[in-house]
Specification:
With about 325 residues, this protein is of the alpha/beta class. It folds into 2 domains: about 180 residues, FAD/NAD(P)-binding domain (3-Layer(bba) Sandwich), CATH 3.50.50.60; about 120 residues, FAD/NAD(P)-binding domain. The two termini are about 35 Å apart. Bound molecules: NADP nicotinamide-adenine-dinucleotide phosphate (NAP). The site of NADP nicotinamide-adenine-dinucleotide phosphate (NAP) has 19 residues, from helix 5.
Length: about 325
Amino acid sequence: MVYSPAIFSLMEKVVIIGSGCAGLTAAIYAARANLAPLVLEGKEPGGQLTTTTLVENFPGFVEGIDGPALIMAMKEQAKRFGARFAYGFVEDLERGDGFVRLKMDGNWMETRALIVASGASARYLGLPGERELVGHGLTACATCDGAFYRNVPVCVVGGGDSACEEASFLTRFASRVYLIHRRDTLRASRIMAERTLANPKITPVWDSVITEYLTDDAGEVRAVRLRNLKTNAESELELKCVFSAIGHIPNTAPFRGKLDMDEKGYLLQSKGTATNIPGVFAAGDVADPVYRQAITSAGQGCAAALDAERYLAQFE
Ligand code: NAP
């Protein structure tokens, strides 16, 4: 148990699941509306921005802003207006009559309105033995783990903005960064792609996929087996760490069968941010398979808080 039930009301007005960009923006708006929202921080407090470095495209920061610093500032801003924070993982949700019941770490709580902003988590390739290798030469967070791999070769898998960002960041530490991509053009935005390919420490490995992680006697990654998808040629590449940057999976498992979602698990919204359960709203990456930007998540968080506020008017 990592939270104190004493801070909860018998019936919360607004509970927000998730403390990333969407959840914190919802918290700022709901708190300023005097709703004293309760923010439940999940397994990845602060969300994806806490695992990134410089955010260059969030409006208002001419020189960019450090991702974790941006999140910390949002949290302080929400607290200033009365938002409350608790740690815990929401396991289940039940629809009540004019309220929603939430099960967190074995305890049930009730709230009039709920904003689901539980975000998305990093995807891995799905190769055998992968789960055991996380932390032993396999990770999805360059900011967290990059410094462990000084003066050794590493690779990043993927061809999107995340892969480019991770690869560029890793050149601060690694002797060489291989960018392994299954096609021969990057999906990343042009500015990111050009910057990445111009970096002399980054070597693209085109049209290739990892088919196996090879480990040493200590169980640490020492190389990967690659297959070229055009020629079918197999090869081995020696490196010390694989950084996965192949996208994300929405964190909606606890809501399966309760909240409507698409085939990939993204929550479906109608009439703004509303879900299929009255009083439950969705915001950010958990409901966005398309844009997935910090600023669009923030915008959704704002919209969800406004939708929740309007919904709550009927109980006054
Ligand atoms: P993404 O754009 O979906 O890119 C995922 C990459 O992984 C793609 O290149 C994809 O290959 C590859 N991939 C997917 N499944 C794979 C598999 N099983 N095996 C091998 N490769 C696989 O994801 P993202 O880079 O995380 O970006 C997500 C969103 O966040 C985007 O909208 C992006 O613009 C945004 N973002 C922005 C910034 C920034 O502006 N600073 C930074 C990071 C992310 P294909 O290309 O062949 O599909």
